[in-house]
Amino acid sequence: MKSKNWNQFAVTIARLFLLVAIAAAWIGVNAQAPTRFVGTLTAINGSTITVKTDAGDSKQVEVPATAVMKRLAPGQKDLSAAETIHLTDLATGDRVLVKLDPDATGATPRALQVVAMKQTDIAQRQQQEREEWQRNGAGGLVKSVDAAAGVVIVTTGAGPTAKTVTVHITKTTVLKRYSATSIRFADAQPAPLDAVHAGDQFQVLGQKNADGSEITATDVVSGSFRNISGIVVSVDATASTLTVKDLVTKKNVMVHVTPDAEMRRLPEMMAKMIAARLKGGASAAGGATTMGRAQGGEPATSAPAGYGPGAGQGGGQGRRGAGGNLAQVLDRAPTVKLGDLQKGEAVMLVSTEGATDVTAIKLLAGVEPLLESPDASRDLLANWSMGSGGAEAAAQ
Fold first, then answer.
1. Where in the chain is the domain with CATH 2.40.50.320?
2. Angle at 133 between CA 132 and CA 139, to 5 degrees
3. Among 50, 204, 210, 263, which is least packed by CB within 10 angstroms?
């Protein structure tokens, strides 16, 4: 009798464990389905919107009349003060956060809430951020860190125009650090000053002294990145990768190129002018202004679109010798696609860290003349590598 009762008890326990396992599996499957996502609005068809998410997926979502729709200004976080809008107020290019209805049963997911930012508002905010970084920002490579004293020495500029800037960190300074696997500012996380090391990329916004040699920081973002100069071995546009032979290590590196990567090609004359300037040649004195005008008539002393920290690096805005001018010239170079690169051509890039497998942040082709001065060219690319954290954050 005891044996029978024990068997029944054992069967009951087994069934209970099976039910728990099934429930856990069901919860796990459902947990994999995201309840919200952020992206860019690419199409509107009736009450259905199409969003390209930040993860690279394309999602269609039905927006019923009952959905809560709000518009935030870039930087605004309080939904209670957000403007109520309608589906007809949306436009392609807007940034949206979509919260899905977990009870929807149709083939197309249904939105409970849509929070939008106008594309034009984001562009305006980004421009304001760029101007702020141009006036009060600096960036380059970390030379030394004294975490106890709250002092970071940063090398800015390149070639004969390189200089050092002393950065003072206070208790109110916001310190962030880029993720080792992401090139997005949105993925940067708070980090203490002792996480910063010599050789790191360093961008700072704050109050400069008269000559820009010292800055009291309000915002800092840093990260460890790799600078590579090499020869293209192969290109796989379908897989969004290229293989580069690193001229320093003599080893091949697999480079992944995501939609976030910035790719440009220097015209031959521009490359020769930059190379001469890096070597301190006779053409260096007026090279920046000449090169800037060669790319559309605008002097290189004004900040180009898409450039944030580094514009006017070292505080010398408007001077021909300002280290930031060369970085601005790079931002004016024509963009290229991965498929435009050819086997055997030289490239320079800034990437995430990795020995044989990296993700490109910025890539520059047409650089053969620059490789004649590898050290100066490395510093040039280092100052060009990271965009404006604030401007990018405005679009998140």
1. 131-222, 226-387
2. 165
3. 210
